[in-house]
Amino acid sequence: MYIIQTAFNGVISGVIMTLPALAVTLLFGVLKFPNFAVGAMMTVAAYLAFALNAQLGWPLLAAALTAALAMGVLCIAIDQVTFKPLRERGGITLMVASLGLGFILENLARFAYGNAARSFVIELARPFRVADIRMNYEQMITLSVSATAMLLMWFLLSRTATGRAMRAVADNPALALVRGIESPRVIRWTWFITGLLLGVGGVLIGMDRALEPPMGSNYLISVFAAAILGGLGSPLGAFVGAIIIGVVSELSTLVLPPNYRIGVPLVAIALVLIFRPQGLFGQPYIRK
């Protein structure tokens, strides 16, 4: 039973990583660069939700939605100020810029709230059991919110004009331009949706663990491992990769000291890059 409980805890960890992994793969699919500021962006969103929830007395749901929307708008502004002027210089330049941006955002959160751990105001509820699996209120919220977000993302990408435009730009930017798809508009939508995903993801991490400046960065390696394992640019791959990384990381604690848990995503990245660089669901790159 302990193994089953550990595996379930791994599923929860994977579900928490799903939204930021989806944000990473969505942004990479359209703009073709890895955004290493996603961890700090989640931290900023979580602290914004904390300010509304714990300091202003807002319900957590309202605070989380407001923080996610604000992060979506902030991501558009960040792109206009930071990434748009550098876009013609290539993905490596954008990646380096994202590293600097992440450092700035994390330290702004540290300057505003210090290093002390904080938490949301959540109504206490007793854990309960389902088929001998111990669950709590926060885990149920995490599962429900992530499942809803994944369904909405599927609907957006497959059933709306905006989603089809995003996929067209991701597949072939030149052909999309010929067909009259406006790349700037698609890029703005991509950043806004990325901000929404990171905003909700930051709140879920804050519910699972304490709020502190490095909270988002602590998930950075696992999030990128999930996106790479699933295949950068594949939303389905981001979900599957996150679940695999979460479950394997938790199960590894049964045979290894907990401090070695961080090695699981690193090993996953190495194995994928060696044996299947495109990931589980990604398309192989053809060098022209």
In short:
The protein is an all-alpha fold.
Question: Could you characterize what this model shows?
Answer:
The protein is mostly helical and 288 residues long. It has one domain: ABC transporter involved in vitamin B12 uptake, BtuC (Orthogonal Bundle), CATH 1.10.3470. Helix content is 70%, strand content 2%. Helix 1 packs antiparallel against helix 8, helix 1 runs antiparallel to helix 10 and helix 9 packs parallel to helix 11. The termini are far apart. The model has no long low-confidence stretch (mean pLDDT 89).
List keywords for this structure.
288 residues; mainly alpha; ABC transporter involved in vitamin B12 uptake, BtuC; two-stranded antiparallel ribbon; 11 helices; 70% helix
Which helices and strands, and how do they pair?
Layout: H1 2-31, H2 38-55, H3 60-83, H4 91-113, E1 128-130, E2 133-135, H5 137-159, H6 161-171, H7 173-178, H8 183-208, H9 220-230, H10 235-252, H11 263-275
Antiparallel strand pairs: 1-2
User: DSSP helix count?
Assistant: 11
Structural domain tally: 1
Secondary-structure-based class equals mainly alpha
Tell me about the biggest sheet? Answer: 2 strands, antiparallel
Query: What is the fold-level CATH name, i.e. the topology?
Result: ABC transporter involved in vitamin B12 uptake, BtuC
Query: Kindly, what is the distance between the CA atoms of the first and last residues, rounded to a whole number of angstroms?
Result: 52 Å
| Strand order within the widest beta sheet | 1-2
- Shape assignment: globular
H/E element string? HHHHEEHHHHHHH
Helix content: over 70%
Using only C-alpha atoms, the radius of gyration works out to 19 Å
CATH class: Mainly Alpha
Mean pLDDT: 89
- Number of distinct beta strands: 2
CATH architectural arrangement: Orthogonal Bundle
In what range is the share of β-strand residues?
Answer: under 5%
Low-confidence stretches: none
